[in-house]
Amino acid sequence: MTTRPAPDGPTPELPSTLLVTLTGEDRPGVTSTLFDAVAPTGAVVLDLEQVVVRGQLTLAVLLEPGGAAKALRGVVDGVADELGLSVSMSKGRGDNRERPTGRAAVVVLGAPLRSQGVAAVARSIAAHGANIDRIRRLSRYPVTTLELDVSGADLGALRRELSLVAAHERVDIAVSPAGLARRGRRLVVMDVDSTLIQDEVIELLARHAGREAEVAAVTERAMAGELDFAASLHARVATLAGLDVAVLEEVRAAVRLTPGARTLVRTLKRLGFTVALVSGGFIEIVQPIADELGIDHARANRLEVEDGRLTGRVLGAVVDRQGKASALREFAEDAGLPLSRTVAIGDGANDLDMLGTAGLGIAFNAKPLVREQADTAVNVPYLDAVLHLLGITREEIEEADDADGTPTHAPAVEHG
Fold first, then answer.
1. How many beta carbons lie within 10 A of that of residue 400, not counting itself?
2. Looking at residue 49, which CATH number applies to its domain?
């Protein structure tokens, strides 16, 4: 722990430091060669950062040379000559400047990620008065994702400012608290229709009743927030009256998972996260999907059946937008997690309360109303892109898949 002098006490003189930066073609042994050579000088290492981009190395070392500054410079020049690297050295005093508070993780995602989009993000952060301290790539396919470690930010204001950049530049941007808030166990709650799966289940059911077009029109208006969800659900379910209950199994077999859905759930479960589904659809379809994927909780409406046929009614209270938010709170309490450690993913107006209640609300290929109100939006067709918003790299996902023998490939259509 650093002891700070009293405000009216003397300020100690800061020690001299030397910042060494080596650049050039990467190869094994660069770091060990440098430090083996530096060791006899007795220099103290204060900081060290290294990055390799397409085989080009940048290695930065902050050293306290003590009384051996001249000898240290000569040693570093010798290492650079030996390895064929360029070197720059600059003198200074003290360690790195203390980072300002207001740390945030800004994730930028694009397919493709164009240079003007990155420029606009960086420009907005600078105009906000914040600083980009580090950048790393989280994925290169099927989307390119960068994570910017930012300090000096007002989280809410920066999120609002970057949402405008996202809309203008057509990139996806998420702003989250950095530090410990970025780590540890979470609850992830997902909508089902047009989120976890590519279909709207009630439309698949309505196809069997010959009422698909009529039901699809009502669904579209409900998801856009133009109709009360509960009333629209009752109207749509009424068109299913008389259908044989065997239709449910046929529809379940026809459901298509969204590309990346299995990868998302599999990775979240490896991390020890709690995963839940909350749907305005039907538990008869949702629960088998949850069971197959190993999802912890499922909440959805239940269809009434009499004499082996659907009655056109649902049993109990409708899982509407308030019901979805209530389910998220219930699941968080059951998991012993604060709401700040919850993530919600959805696409329709009936997801808005849930997205607003969660610590991070993600609009996935959502209606305009939902994109405008969510914390962030993902507009690529891969559900596992959500993992990058949580700071998880593509390499980490693939390494975990390789470790347990799961085939690794770019996301493709995943069937139920």
1. 17
2. 3.30.70.260
Q: Can you list the pairs that 79-86 forms with residues at least 24 positions away whose Cβ atoms lie under 8 Å?
A: 79/22, 79/33, 79/34, 79/37, 79/38, 80/22, 82/33, 83/22, 83/24, 83/27, 83/30, 83/33, 84/24, 84/25, 85/22, 85/23, 85/24, 85/25, 85/30, 85/57, 86/22, 86/23, 86/24
Same domain, 402 and 330: yes
Provide φ and ψ at 167, rounded to 5°: -65, -40
Residue type, 152: G
pLDDT, tens digit, 9 for 90 and up, residues 352-362: 999 999 999 99
Structure tokens that stand for 159 in this block:
């999120």
Q: Are 397 and 386 in contact (CB under 8 A)?
A: no
* Contact in structure between 150 and 105 (CB atoms under 8 Å): yes
Residue 287 lies in a domain: yes
This model's pTM is above 0.85: no
Residue at which a domain ends, from 29, 64, 93: 93
Closest CA to 179 of 129, 133, 120: 133
| Residue 271 domain-assigned (yes or no) | yes
Q: pLDDT digit string (tens) for 152-202?
A: 999 999 999 999 999 999 999 999 998 777 888 999 999 999 999 999 998
Owning domain of residue 121: 104-181
One DSSP character per residue, 368-396 reads HHHHHHSSEEE-SS-GGGHHHHTT--HHH
**Which residues does the annotation mark as catalytic?**
191, 193
